[in-house]
Amino acid sequence: MRIPRGTLATLACGLLAVSPLSAQKKKDKEEITQVRRLPEELPSVVTGDTRRLAFHTTPLSAKGLLSPQVRDALKALQHEAGGETVIKIRAFVAGSADLRHVRDLVSEFYTSHKEPLPAITLVQAGALPLDGAQVVLEAIAVTRRDANPYGLAFISPTVSSAEDPLGPVPPLTEKTLAGLRQSLQSVSLAPADALRVTCFVSSLQNLAESRRLVQTEYPRAALNFVQMNRAPRQSISACEAVARLRAAPSSQLEFVNSNSGESQVAMVNTSQVVLTGGQDSFGYQDADARLAFERLKKSLEQAGVTPKNVAYADYYPLSPGLGAQVRKIRAEFFDHPAATMLIFEGLPSMDAGFAVDVVAVK
Fold first, then answer.
1. Across-strand partners of 274?
2. Helical packing angle, 66-81 and 100-112, nearest 10°
3. pLDDT at residue number 37
4. Mean of the pLDDT values across residues 345-361?
5. β-bridge partners, 340
6. Which tens digit of pLDDT belongs to each residue from 188-214?
7. Positive or negative, the Cα torsion across 115, 121, 124, 127?
8. What is the pairing mode between strands 272-276 and 279-280?
């Protein structure tokens, strides 16, 4: 059947008229189906000006699940830090959520605000001091002014413990605070010089009393309280601290009261410090632990320092046996930095035995 010329012309005009619209619909469909961009990888190591470091702890929230709580914590941190640049975050997460999701949320937040990405340490805790709270962030930021002209003191906790896992914690908190007070006095400091105090406890029962003790002595410091495990093996209270020095130490890195591979205090008076994110081990043998320290060493070397420059180390083993393993292997890499080593509930990787992060002088 022949189609009249007029009809052909009409059809052609109709196709031409529809063609741009079809193209636009196809373009819109392609945009909708594009794969979401993956979060930027957070750095394994960052560098900051020692004299300009500030310390923050985010308020707890019980609103929603983990994701909205992390976003709220980051917004609160941004508000408190003001114009400061956050370079390191330590996140304690309670509950059974995937810790790696916190890393993605942190990356997305700072990328969207066009700010430098911080290093991060992720640790699963037993509980936090507010029912329903799933995350608390500790942050180190760089200010625009010299806040610590003589440097910083990083202070190991005096671990106070009792065999009964259900025993009262406040008496143990009194003892660990006495130890912290003595450590401050050993370097001519007072509680008013403390910038951050983090207390790790075996139970949050009667936390109000422990909190009262700490707040009374350290009203100016950023405070944090974390229950390490859901089912503790013993009663524990251990408070670590960072304080502002009142006078320059005799050397850029000076250790005080060193024994058994650790120092009670590390005094730092270098122009810069290197902060690492959490380095997890993978596996439970000595060789696996050694590989974790080797990876940490590589990260430090990329920043221009070595493990011998480490001033403070935080270790997060998941069992006493793994803690003993860390003590054995770390001697191959570190001298005797100040340190915290306590047993925690979990880490981002299912096969991780422990994690470690450090502060090193540059």
1. 47, 360
2. 40
3. 67
4. 96
5. 314
6. 999 999 999 999 999 999 999 999 999
7. negative
8. unpaired
Secondary structure (DSSP) of 238-273:
EEEEEEE-SS--SSSEEEEEEETTEEEEEEE--SEE
What does the pLDDT look like over 287-336, one tens digit per residue? 999 999 999 999 999 999 999 999 999 999 999 999 999 999 999 999 89
**Using CB atoms within 10 A of its CB, is residue 35 exposed (0-12), middle (13-18) or buried (19+)?**
exposed
- Beta carbons of 229 and 135 less than 8 angstroms apart: no
Give the helix ranges, DSSP H, for the chain: 5-32, 66-81, 100-112, 170-186, 207-217, 286-302, 320-330
8 A C-beta contact, residue 105 and residue 67: yes
DSSP 8-state code for residue 3: P
Q: Provide the CB-side half-sphere exposure for 294 (13 A, CA).
A: 7
Q: Residue 329: CA atoms inside 13 Å, Cβ hemisphere, count? A: 24
| Tens of pLDDT, residues 153-188 | 999 999 999 999 999 999 999 999 999 999 999 999
Task: Indicate the DSSP class of residue 127.
Answer: B
pLDDT at 36 over 70: no
Q: Which residues contact 47 (CB under 8 A, 6 or more apart)?
A: 87, 272, 273, 274, 275, 303, 362
Which of 175, 218, 165, 163 lies closest to 193 in space, CA to CA? 218
